Amino acid sequence: MITGDEDRPWIDDGHILVRDGVIVSVGAGAAPSKADERIDAGGMLVSPGFVNGHTHLSMTLGRTLGVDESLLGWLAVQQPITAALEPEDVRLAVQLGALENLKAGNTTVCEVFSSTRFADGVDAIAAEAIDEFGLRSVFFRCSNDLPFGGSETLDEIERRTRDLINAWANSSRIQIGVGPKIPWAASRDYWHQTREFVAAGTPAHLHTSETPEYNDLVRAKTGMSNVELLADVGVLGPAVMLNHCVHLSDRDIGLISDHGSPVIHDPVSNMFLASGVAPIVALRDANVVLGLACDGAACNNTQDMFEVMKAASLLQKAVTRDPKALTAQDVFTMATSGGAAAAGLGKVTGRLAPGYAADVVLIDTDAPHLTPIHDPLAALVYSARAADVHTVLVDGKVVLANRTVPGFDEGALLARARERGAELRALAGI
Length: 430
What we know:
Number of strands: 14
Low-confidence stretches: none
Oligomer: single chain
Structural class: alpha/beta
Order of helices and strands: EEEEHHEHEHEHEHHEHEHHEHHEHEEH
Shape: globular
Largest sheet: 4 strands, antiparallel
Strand order of the largest sheet: 3-12-13-14
Mean pLDDT: 95
Helix content: 25-40%
């Protein structure tokens, strides 16, 4: 067991005891004999569930469209698809993405949801689709009040966001967040509205400094860098997650550190879109809380956090020419407890330790690419794949057993996604 618990990071041949969805003990040897149910993890690596700190499940039906383009070129292909989505397409896309995350061992997802055809209730459809699979989620309802691939009025944003917050107020797994999707398409009034939501306890999530062209658009609109804009409008702080952060100045890094905003790193997406390499070592040295993410399936092509952990480590090793720049332990922490802390869930999930939710992943090691295992952590980060995930628990409930979601017709979902994906491509004229 790779626990993520600093007091006991590694246990060989041990047990986890769960009661009412919460871990009550983690130790060596067999579990107490009076347990009501037992799961045999023999031959497995056992890990905390991964926190996918930024994704767009509603865009899953656009997977593999707009490849070999930069961000703005990719968006130009993706926007006609998202504009064609009906509410039931949103449900289908999110179901497909949620299933993929679950089968990859991602027990928590930070969904950055937006729609070019916002209407009352479409955001609720997406949140319900995530909840259907038993996943934990911080569901960020994001849009813009200025034109860019769909917008809403400030009154609509306020009303629909509050409706969503109220609808999930009693959920133990789903929390609602906010945030302008595109910084240059948000008015100062929208930023002030976001600040008020954050001050009232609602987290925010913001695309930040993703590409040089992205930064140029923000500066042309505001005269400031993306991070300087956030500081100017008062939207930085521990409850404001910043995603990407690829092109940062030293001043930007200082502002992020001073205000305590966490940063989510998307290495595969950043490479896929040729966005650049985020200064993760500099951010870490500035004591910024760091998490990891796949980004959406349409700008990564998978939701495989094993791939993301490996890519994050290797990318920093390559650009710094330092093999210890970002170690296996570093990226594992970013994918678990670091991501949980960034999402405001640092006391809830991300560790196999007493008092934490039983969000647990069992990884089958009976495979050539996982043989032999001399270093279990290195095997998990550098050798394992999403397809090796065997069993997943969220809140102590088995939501994936022997690679299958109990009682769910996966084949029917995949067939419908193939059919509707083709229809949407035709409707979008791509």
